[in-house]
Amino acid sequence: MLYGEIKLEPWMIFSSKEHFLGVLRDFCIQEGFALTPDKHDSKRFTARCYQKQCNWRIHASMLMDGVSWAIKSLTGEHKLCGRLDANPMVSSEWLCKKLMEDIKSNPDYPVEGLQERCRVMFRIEVKLRLLYKVRNMAKELIHGGFSESYDLLPAYADMIKRTNPRSYALVTWTKEIVGATPHFKSCFFSFGCMIKGFFEGCRPIIGIDGAHLSGTYKGQMLTAIAIDGNNEIFPIAYGIVDGETGDTWHTSSDA
Ligand SMILES: [Zn+2]
Description:
Blueprint: E1 13-14, H1 17-31, E2 35-40, E3 44-49, E4 57-62, E5 69-75, H2 92-105, H3 111-122, H4 128-143, H5 146-151, H6 153-163, E6 168-173, E7 184-190, H7 192-201, E8 207-212, E9 220-227, E10 233-241, H8 246-254
Antiparallel strand pairs: 1-5, 2-3, 3-4, 4-5, 6-7, 7-10, 8-9, 9-10
The structure holds zinc ion.
Zinc ion binds next to loops.
């Protein structure tokens, strides 16, 4: 949908009610006005312009086939309405759908860039706060959420051990208590090539550090690094724990 692309006329037919409502929302956002529904059930839909003094009305209903919908009447015009600065028809779900391709091509698309895309494509002003939410929603749809990713860790650890000889991969969970689901506690990974590279090409010094994670579940990422012959950082192992303590470093080194 690009600005000015959608035109509505009486007797336009839509494949379903959802199709009709989707096009109507696109149209309202394009034209810069919002709707107040009057009647809205499974067979008919009547709405008017959000501005009280405006006489714009739309009426649509289901056709005889019981699936398709058609606009039955479209009356009035937005004489004094002007474009709404912040259109309540612009929802996070709508933005997510419209910006999905941009976010898919670059999951870290700057929100300021997305804001500019909205100005150019739809002539709408969207708050950066909302765009942060939309970008996260889109990323969840593309990659799955944090919980799905944590769920995949045991399978990931198994795959590392199966496909990378001499690797360490460990995922630990809280103790099993009857009636309670075990929770993720920590994970630790070191690929065979990292261990080999450390022994064969690095100085015998190991640097360790932790970094706080800002995702949904927080925790800390622990990394152990060495310095190789070119004075470059060479990772040896990394893991995720609930907090950086002697105990968590110990759990990792026991793996
Ligand atoms: Zn109006």
